[in-house]
Amino acid sequence: MIDPQVKQRLVEIVGENWVLDQPEELVAYSYDSTPMYQELPDIVVLPKTTEEVAKVMRIAYEYGIPVIPRGSATNLSGGTVPLKGGLVLALNRMNQILEIDEENLTATVQPGVITQELHQTVEAKGLFYPPDPGSLRISTIGGNIAENAGGLRGLKYGVTKDYVIALEAVLPNGDILHTGGKLAKDVAGYDLTKLLIGSEGTLAVITKATLKLLPLPETKRTMLAIFKDLTDAARAVSKIIANKIIPVTLEFMDNGTINVVEDYVKIGLPRDVEAILLMEQDGSKDQVDRDIEKMAEICRQEQAVSVQVASTAKEAEQLMTARRMALSALARLKPTTILEDATVPRSELAPMVETIKNVAKKYNLMICTFGHAGDGNLHPTCLTDVRNADEIKRVEKAFDEIYEKTIELGGTITGEHGVGIAKAGYLEWKVGKSGIEVMKGIKKAFDPKGILNPGKLFTDQPRKRVVIQS
Amino acid sequence: MSHQISLALGISEDDLLNCMQCGFCLSVCPTYKIIPKETATPRGRIALMKAVQDGGLVTKDITESLDLCLGCRACEVACPSGVQYGTMLEHAKEVITEQTNFSAPVKAVRWLFLKQLLPYPKRMKWIRGGIRIYQKSGLQKIARKSGILKTLPWHMGAFEAVLPEVAPFRAKLPKRVEPNAKTNKPTVAFFSGCIQDTVFHETNVSTMKLLEAAGFPIVTPEDQTCCGAVHAHAGEVDLAKDLAKKNIEMLERSGASYLVNNQGGCGAMLKEYDKLLADDPVWAERAKAFVKKVKDINEILAEIDELPKLYPMNVRVTYQDSCHLTNVQKVTLQPRKLIQSIPGIEYVEMVGAGTCCGSAGTYNIVHYDESMQILDAKMINVINTQAEIVVVANPGCQMQMRMGVQRAGLEGKVRVMHIADLLAEAARLK
Ligand SMILES: Cc1cc2nc3c(=O)[nH]c(=O)nc-3n(C[C@H](O)[C@H](O)[C@H](O)COP(=O)(O)OP(=O)(O)OC[C@H]3O[C@@H](n4cnc5c(N)ncnc54)[C@H](O)[C@@H]3O)c2cc1C
Ligand code: SF4
Ligand code: SF4
């Protein structure tokens, strides 16, 4: 329950319409795209300006109310679940593209801008914003920055952090922080911009971002290669890179995923193979043709049973759609979909996929794997049912084993989805004790009262993945 | 509003759990576009239904959120998990209606429309007669001058202003039409629709003429009744089922191979009788057979490739999809193909043609303000096409788009036409 006086003050800041506390309104802000986590906030506030955010933060600071920043709540790590109640700060109304600077090749946007809208707007001007998470139709730029989201073009173009050059953010005490600028070079002090990227709403509320743009590539082409054998596919990936080709996209789907996607989109994918690689290259026409041919040749050398180069944009789009739909198509199969985010060095791809397969068998689970092969970023996805408590326990154990192996292979616990609640238990595995200490110190410097997104990133119960809440 | 508390909506748990909360549906939901709150999203509405189911909320808590939904079902198409949103919504509405103690005037209006008027084509004709007298007797002029229309409830004045001149009371569709030349085409039964025949009788005439010119023998069964869509959306599912059974019997008796309609909304309802009656041991099979025979006019015309001769029309035309034709019946290419088969027409695709215009059954009456926000946004896209004709495929959209044209100050510049009227005009059948 929120103090009526606090509510009154919030209403004075943002207006009656934008303070929500009815039971159904609280329920609607109690979840995100992560299965099995849900907790009610006490109140929801939807500000329109940075000033309003600052005023709301000042009140929260004064009363010590937890604040959970929220974009479209599509994150897969429980990042927007109000674990300890408090105030959900929904930023959807701050959705203006403020400036597209064609001279400096930058876009300045509010945090609630939908990723796809930014894409469409800049592409209409012949410009290009590369980060493209699978959720781009609805995720927000603020959420992308806070999670340091990746996407299908990550191999060649990197992830969100490679495009954020300046930020405006409101600190927990209501002060407004400015970092970076429209500069190609800037080494003044600690890089606070980078620090806020991937901070998962635990350090400050991002209220404005300046993003770097590129010229829109002249052309792009897509191809699909099908492998009977997983190791062949993995070898093809390494060999492509070793040949100094960096495709925009180099995506992987395993047999389970292939079958499910085919059931859903029906584009004629074969059902009896172990791996599909989906590749895309962009750039100047000559270069693209050359790279695509070379990649096709490498795949054939590595025993691909079929190599198919899309001849039209429509065909290419279809192939890409298949990959974008992978996660969601899997969701059709079973009520609960638990998607993980294990990342290993590219060279360890085959052993990693093999491990996942064996672990699934050991615990008698259905785990389909797809992901960004070029980045070594895999999404083993377990299809299960929350109602089956026994199975969920096995899921937990299976993922523990999968992550142990990931770390052993020199990998990490999350490539792009963030730590949130879901991975909090594993963070120490990855960064070590001193890593945790430094991170906690940083958190304290920004947020001495610990009001921003409490319960995320850090946990009292390291190692164990907490899946079911009591 | 009732204070009775229910702990469950009775929606299948599997259906509710199917939603993985991915949020894909948020990007297509028209209510989320105008109200940036999670309660105005499909994902939110499903979460609320689930919360009621689990006992975390009471039914009445979620009424407002569900009432704000247009029922356009764009979310269903966008959903990769195959969530059956439409079915869940209908079910929830039924339970809510059961538990709601409507106020006396609302009760009276519901009783009058749902039970006494819509199911009876003859009575709907009386309404048409009444409107006709109002329009022709000079009453309309007096009413418009007096300003009394502004005082009517539910913004009726706004609707009055865009009501087309209706057909006379006596106007009647032919009971039977035999084509001139001998034909091996199957006989079709024509489904005239209650609102359609009341307000847009002319469109029905055009539709029949087109079918005739295409060589179909046609019957207009007199024992047809309302499709039941309004009833189902208002939570009166039992009434909808009764109407469905009557229509199934009607088509069986007629002996026709197809039941052709020109109303995207009614057509969708007719095509979902199998879902509506799925649990009924006596009717389930008959409903399935019925559904296979239902065709929208766009489907039947686009599929036969034997349109009457179309004369050139030199105009710029755009098309506004009907949600239920698009999202439920999946008919999107056919109308575009038909429009473009008229020589001389310059077809321009409108940005967001597939998103709801805000009409949505009685939505524009009950949620006038939200509906007009959705409409005004749509009109910007219409204006950008610079089209002189906006083609529609459903009477609700036709009224709504007429309203949009008026609100945008485009009267006399932009015409709103049902596709059947456009084709009939191009074929010089009217
Ligand atoms: C189907 C599907 C596919 C996906 N594909 C990808 C993918 O390919 N790559 C990828 O990286 N991710 C992917 N994701 C995960 C998710 O979409 C991303 O993490 C996305 O960046 C979240 O954006 P959002 O607007 O929904 O943020 P939210 O989920 O609302 O928030 C995410 C986190 O950011 C914080 N936050 C949000 N806005 C702000 C702000 N303005 N200031 C400070 N903190 C803020 C929140 O507190 C939370 O911790 C996918 C998710 C789904 C459901
Ligand atoms: S798209 Fe489907 S699964 Fe995703 S949130 Fe919407 S209804 Fe749920
Ligand atoms: S039916 Fe239409 S208005 Fe209702 S939730 Fe779905 S998309 Fe939104």
UniProtKB/TrEMBL annotation, chain A:
The keyword rRNA processing does not apply. GO terms for molecular function: (S)-2-hydroxy-acid oxidase activity; FAD binding. The keyword Flavoprotein applies. Coiled coil: none annotated. Its cofactor is FAD. GO terms for cellular component: glycolate oxidase complex. PROSITE patterns: FAD_PCMH. Belongs to the FAD-binding oxidoreductase/transferase type 4 family. This is Glycolate oxidase.
Automatic annotation (TrEMBL), chain B:
Binds 2 [4Fe-4S] clusters. Keywords: 4Fe-4S, Electron transport, Iron, Iron-sulfur, Metal-binding, Repeat, Transport. The keyword Cytoplasm does not apply. It is an enzyme of class 1 (oxidoreductase). Pfam families: CCG, Fer4_8. It comes from the Bacteria. Its EC number is 1.1.99.14. The keyword Glycosyltransferase does not apply. It catalyses: glycolate + A = glyoxylate + AH2; (R)-lactate + A = pyruvate + AH2. Its cofactor is [4Fe-4S] cluster. Residues 10-39, 60-83 form the 4Fe-4S ferredoxin-type domain. GO terms for molecular function: 4 iron, 4 sulfur cluster binding; glycolate dehydrogenase activity; metal ion binding. Component of a complex that catalyzes the oxidation of glycolate to glyoxylate. This is Glycolate oxidase iron-sulfur subunit.
